[in-house]
Write a structure and sequence with these properties.
The structure holds two protein chains of two kinds. Helix content of chain A is 69%, strand content 0%. Chain A is mostly helical. Among the domains of chain A are: 40 residues, no CATH class; 84 residues, no CATH class; 147 residues, Orthogonal Bundle (MetI-like fold), CATH 1.10.3720. Chain B has two domains: 212 residues, D-Maltodextrin-Binding Protein, domain 2 (3-Layer(aba) Sandwich), CATH 3.40.190.10; 96 residues, 3-Layer(aba) Sandwich (D-Maltodextrin-Binding Protein, domain 2). In chain B, a hairpin with a 5-residue loop joins β2 and β3. In chain B, α3 crosses α9 and α3 packs across α13. Chain B is globular, with a radius of gyration of 22 Å. The chains are: A mainly alpha, B alpha/beta.
């Protein structure tokens, strides 16, 4: 039986173009409907926010841009009667004072040194933060050793003139240090060679650092009393950030250590520093400390708050890192120990990489807080960015009604750029490191 | 027990203070050895101590330090300015962090006798004053009965105000704010009839008004604020240098010796000028300086009148009248003690 039906066959040779989805399901209209007006409550909220933006944004834009004054050499330019219109931000003031905001009283002829410092800082930060940069191990050495030494020489002029007596003492101290290390290695029956190598390395690094600082590079000395502005703000923030992470990790490990003295010391340090406000530490350092020291002994006026800030940030960082350590399941520790790893190996290879990853938001939060806290040094008479702005806004040459607002707007912009940058970078790193660990 | 601890702490602090002032016996020698003078300055006060756009310090107080540096080193730039907040200033001087404090500090008996400090030279006589709008038609503070007055909270300004109105049997309404900024903004916006603060501050604030010409500063000064340069108690030579730096600048003004003509004046026959500029007598050596110390001051900085006009007077934006700070011959209080 012939069941074949004689009909022309139809096989579509290419896919038919898909119909577009209904207009209401895509495009801006649908997006707005879905995201902004998806219910009565959301609609109300959206409208309220739009209204708020409507009353906030135009005056801000007017102040910062439309009515702003961009050129001028003194207060006349920024007054309504000469400008002929209501005056907003007086950017001419910021432009005129920008050198003071950037360098403080740093001698004008030597400011190229500060510029090199900024460039070196940018290089180091870029090298470490750009995850695909070549030789990041060298970058770390640069940032944590070479960069501080170079900065010190550039900014102060180096040439500390240590003298022969100091070098003799240094040689004796190094010899004693090496001998102690060797004796310890012998007593503990560990490798003598590695002990001497490590000890020698430490002595060599310290020696080279001191020698570099000691050399007369022919730079004019610039005492820290002349530093100011963005230079000081970045310096305080960098020192705080660079010191706080390693010291914070050590303190956190110390606090969780099984050795009672170490643990007690860490707990006391952390709790003491966290128990006093930063402003107290700064005032103590800059006002009270000189009273207790002998009259001929002084600690640099800028170094004191630097040390205070570094201590302070370390204590906070320690608690953040401890949070990460406590979040690690016990099995990680046990697994590492069962592989025969000793304590440093366990921490460096197993625990810390995971623990630190968990607390990246906390670490960055501390950094951002620290960056903004640097403005507190202005209270003890250090001319950081905020203080330079405050000193400039009362300059009678620039006395005009909006000068103060302009100065603070500039400061806000500066802090916002840095803090927002840090926060975005940390988000990026988090996303990258969390691949495969999404919860 | 607690009392004992407190008294021990006080005893320790006191002994430290004494030790501090004792060890700082020869400030001049230590300044010469360091090669620079450390000068406590204001962190920013228009006309008195303020860094300019290049970060160089300017102002009346600052020029006093420059004059000292000129007298000691023949160079007005061998100074490090340490900006000090009001609460830190005396501690910084006591502890030896600064050699001299030229920071618009009011001298009072308790400060002079209890803080271990001396105030050898009053370089500006200030006092609290009032500013009002011109259209109010008031020409004296005595006519302010019933006025509302903007002032800063918790300051001596507020107390002086209360004293003054009570003494003159007048009513007033105080409108107080936390910061000087807010206070002036409120006055400028018309929230009160008058604004009060130290007279030198009134002139600086007036410039920030939306229309400076609409405001006048009333002539009355209702409190005494002698702003003086301070040094540690016990180093009399150093105190003498401060006192005579100021007097040299005053005498120079009185004798007509200025920065511009000081070299001509060196050949003057006037014995007073000769003594001032060191061509006669050995007055400089007596305080550990060279005999041309005053010449150096005038050559590098100028006389008191020049410094005043340049920083706070007609040559500056502040345009403060000499008033109490005029020479005694012109009805002011600045009286140069004779050099002889």
């Amino acid at each position: 039986m012939n069941t074949a039906v004689d009909m022309s066959r139809f096989v579509r040779s290419e896919n038919i173009e898909a119909l577009p989805p209904p207009n209401l399901a895509r495009g801006p209209v649908a997006w707005v409907r879905e995201n902004l007006f998806s219910g009565p409550v959301n609609t109300l909220l959206t409208l309220a926010v739009i209204y708020l933006l409507y009353i906030l944004i135009p005056p801000i834009v007017d102040f910062l841009f439309v009515n702003a004054v961009w050129t001028g050499t003194d207060r006349a330019a920024c007054r309504a009667e000469t400008a002929g219109h209501p005056v907003g931000a007086c950017w001419a003031f910021v432009i005129e004072k920008i050198n003071f905001f950037t360098y403080g009283s740093y001698p004008a002829a030597e400011r190229w040194r500060v510029n090199i410092f900024f460039a070196l800082l940018a290089l180091g930060v870029g090298w470490l933060l750009w995850l695909k940069a070549p030789r990041r191990d060298l970058g770390a050495i640069y940032f944590f050793w070479l960069f501080p030494v170079l900065s010190y020489i550039l900014l102060t002029g180096g040439n500390v003139s240590l003298g022969l007596g100091f070098w003799i003492k240094f040689a004796v101290a190094s010899a004693v240090f090496l001998a102690v290390l060797a004796a310890a290695a012998y007593a503990l029956k560990t490798s003598m060679r590695s002990a001497v190598l490590i000890g020698g390395g430490i002595v060599a690094v310290i020696g080279i650092t001191l020698a570099l600082v000691n050399v007369d590079w022919g730079l004019r000395p610039v005492p820290s009393a002349f530093w100011g502005g963005i230079l000081v703000t970045l310096l305080v923030a960098t020192v705080g950030i660079v010191f706080s992470l390693p010291f914070g990790i050590l303190l956190a490990l110390g606090r969780r250590s099984k050795l009672p003295i170490l643990r007690l010391a860490s707990v006391i340090f952390i709790e003491f520093v966290r128990g006093v406000p930063l402003i107290t530490v700064l005032i103590m350092a800059n006002t009270m400390l000189p009273l207790f020291l002998p009259a001929d002994m002084t600690v640099d006026r800028l170094a004191r708050p630097l040390i205070g800030v570094a201590f302070f940030a370390s204590a906070y960082m320690a608690e953040v890192v401890r949070g990460g350590l406590q979040a690690m399941p016990k099995g990680q520790y046990e697994g590492a120990m069962s592989l025969g790893l000793n304590y440093p190996q366990m921490m460096v290879f197993i625990i810390l990489p995971q623990a630190l990853r968990i607390v990246i938001p906390g670490i960055v939060n501390t950094f951002i807080g620290l960056f903004k806290d640097t403005s507190l040094v202005s209270v003890v008479g250090i001319f950081d960015l905020v203080k330079t702005i405050e000193a400039s806004r009362i300059d009678p040459n620039w006395a005009a009604p909006t000068i103060s607002y302009t100065g603070y707007a500039f400061a806000a912009l500066f802090y916002f750029i840095f803090c927002f940058g840090m926060s975005r970078y940390s988000l990026g790193v988090e996303r990258r490191l969390a691949t495969g660990q999404k919860r | 027990m607690k009392k004992a601890i407190v008294s021990i702490a006080f005893g320790l602090t006191a002994s430290l203070l004494v030790a501090g002032s004792a060890s700082a016996q020869a400030t001049l020698a230590s300044v010469k050895q360091k090669g620079y003078l450390t000068c406590g300055s204001n962190t920013g006060l228009a006309g008195f101590g303020l860094p300019d756009a290049q970060g160089n310090w300017t102002g009346l107080d600052v020029e006093f330090c420059r004059a000292m540096s000129a007298a000691i080193f023949d160079d007005p730039t061998k100074i490090r300015f340490i900006p000090l907040a009001a609460k830190d200033r005396f501690t910084a001087l006591q502890s030896g962090e600064v050699d001299v404090l030229a920071r618009n500090s009011t001298v009072t008996m308790s400060r002079d006798t209890q803080l271990g400090l001396d105030f050898p030279a009053i370089n500006y006589f200030d006092g609290q004053g009032f500013m009002v709008r011109k259209k109010l038609g008031v020409s004296s503070a005595k006519e302010l009965n019933g006025a509302s007055i903007c002032t800063q909270q918790g300051t001596t300004t507020e107390l002086n105000l209360a004293d003054y109105f009570r003494a003159n049997n007048m009513k007033y309404e105080v409108v107080a704010f936390a910061t000087s900024d807010e206070t002036f903004k409120a006055y400028d916006a018309g929230r009160c009839d008058a604004f009060t603060t130290d007279a030198s501050g009134l002139y600086a604030e007036r410039l920030r008004a939306s229309n400076p010409d609409d405001h006048i500063v009333l002539p009355e000064i209702i409190s005494k604020e002698p702003l003086a340069v301070a040094v540690r108690h016990g180093d009399n030579q150093w105190g003498d240098i401060v006192r005579w730096t100021h007097n040299a600048m005053l005498n120079a003004e009185e004798l007509g010796v200025t920065k511009a003509n000081v070299d001509q004046m060196k050949g003057s026959d006037n014995p007073e000028i000769k003594r001032l500029l060191g061509s006669e007598g050995k007055f400089g050596e007596a305080v550990g300086l060279t005999n041309d110390w005053a010449y150096r001051i005038i050559k590098h900085v100028g006389n008191y009148g020049e410094s005043f006009e340049r920083n706070v007077g007609e040559g500056s934006k502040l345009k403060i009248k000499r008033g109490l700070n005029a020479q005694w011959t012109k009805g002011g209080l600045q009286y140069g003690i004779p050099i002889r």
